[in-house]
Amino acid sequence: MYTGTLKSKSSGLKIVYRNTSLKCSVVRRRGADGRIPVRTLDRGASSSAAAAEPTGYPGGPYDTSLLVKYEHHVARHIWFGEERGPKKELKVAGHGLKLNSRVPLALPPQMESWVSRSGLASLQRTSLNKIDTNLVSAFVERWHLETSSFHMPFGEMSITLDDVACLLHLPIRGIFWSPQDVTEELAVELAVDYLGVSQSQAQSHVRSCRGSYYKLEWLYDIFVHHRAASSWAYATRAYLLMLVGSTIFADKTFTLVEARYLLLFRDLDGCSGYSWGAAALVTLYRYLGDASMYSCKQLGGYPTLLQCWIHEYFPTVGKRGENWNPAGNCGLPRAMRWSYRQGVLKVDDLRPILDELTPTDVIWRPFEDHRAWRVFDEICLYRGCLKWGETVVPYLPDRCLRQFGYRQYVPSPPLDCMMATDIDVDWISYHQSVVDVIGSSSVATTPFEVVDGYLEWYYRVSHPRLVPPHRDAPREVPVPVYDAGPSDPDWARVSTLIRRYLRQVNAEEEDPQFSDLFEALHISRSH
């Protein structure tokens, strides 16, 4: 075996590569699924030696024990130039424009009290008018449901409970919800009892929905009707159900909301006890997992949450409008900082850009200037399963510790939520899991610090890049070695912008016309 190091003059990125010399040449062909089978025995080789050689996929994972569903993942197909369909991006529907037209400037005081106490009031103003489907799709292609995380070139990242708290101002602490089954008949009864509509009207509507659903437009009409009639409880339930159906519980029909969610608002004085932040995260995790599969072409959940998360952590990726600077914030949810700007890059343009990202391209702790309004809650470091309805997902902060200011270690294998029996108890008694998560780490000395061996492990079990070095000859992806870079986030931002420009123009450090920029780059990286 021999090992070498390459260093790019323009980016400063060092790459370690390895190769192995063989005495005889063996042709290893990919199967129909793109997987490399165990190679045929050479003459004189032992069967045990062959069995010890792991199977894997070109570009990773080479060790398939972690991403057990990778065979069906969209990334496996993209590596070989296979798209989901004629449209490479997902169908993603944001309700922002409609919601803006349906949310009044001010609710009647009788309704405002209930909406404010529910913990959902912030959702009235957080939605982006439109969604950048190419940007969102490019990140979905990196989501893996086994780890509840995005697999980036430098390790895993995820949308955490703290991100939800800061972006949406939803309550994190609270109970999970275990609903009863709602048939079409029960959907009719619920509409009569809690929305104040007639039996015939409810029956006709549910029948038109072809299932236990209500149309968002119908709920809005009910809200308007009861508000005019001063039937405040009916109006508030219709309004809240329309609100969550247009945001955190948006599904892939893009027009309906499940009737069972009306049960959440039977007691308008008691609905504040739910963990709405966990509900938003569980729903989005579920739809991200579905959309990461090659056969899926739509994304449900709250796409504003995903897109604003991207804007906060990846300042050089995608196009966005900024409504205000964080320093000028007066306590609004951070999602309201951003506005939609039409992007020019398609999803296949974004893939190589994401492949070339380094840790210095990330703002690892974007909400430190938001703590006056949302203090960090240690429950966000809970490692366990989150539950909402019948959906259970693993929540694994030990896989994205750099987002919490800790040094990233090789995490434990993901939880099997199918085997979880006491999720509510685990959630209430979260403290021990927090101790376990951070007890094996330490506060990071640089924003993206990892333990020795982490990247080698990660590149063995993951598929960190979507575009192969050469489309006609997929080969092993080398493990990168990153320079430390600046520890101050402002200097890191300066360093990122300079380095990105130098890459775009293919600048060489020896070129006199770029000498000042390279000097500025070196100064920024020393801080």
What can you see in these coordinates?
By secondary structure, the protein is an alpha+beta fold. 34% of the residues lie in helices and 9% in strands. The chain is built from 18 helices and 14 strands. The protein has helices at residues 47-52, 74-78, 96-102, 109-118, 133-140, 161-168, 184-195, 199-209, 216-228, 232-245, 276-291, 303-313, 347-355, 423-428, 431-439, 454-461, 489-504, 515-525; strands at residues 2-7, 14-19, 91-92, 143-144, 149-152, 155-157, 213-215, 256-258, 298-299, 320-322, 338-340, 384-388, 391-395, 479-481. The strands form six sheets. Strands 1-2-14 form a three-stranded antiparallel beta sheet. The chain has a three-stranded antiparallel beta sheet with strand order 4-5-6. Helix 7 packs across helix 8 and helix 17 runs antiparallel to helix 18. The two termini are 38 Å apart. The relative contact order is 0.15.
Enumerate the strands of the largest sheet in spatial order, edge to edge or round the barrel: 1-2-14
Arithmetic mean pLDDT: 87
Q: Can you tell me the residue ranges where pLDDT is under 50 for at least 5 consecutive residues? A: 1-30, 36-53
Kindly provide the radius of gyration, computed on alpha-carbon positions and rounded to a whole number of angstroms.
25 Å
The chain-level structural class is: alpha+beta
Helix content class: 25-40%
In total, the number of strands is 14
How many DSSP H or I helices? 18
Which percent band covers the strand fraction? 5-15%
Characteristics:
18 helices, globular, 527 residues, 14 strands, 3-stranded antiparallel sheet, alpha+beta
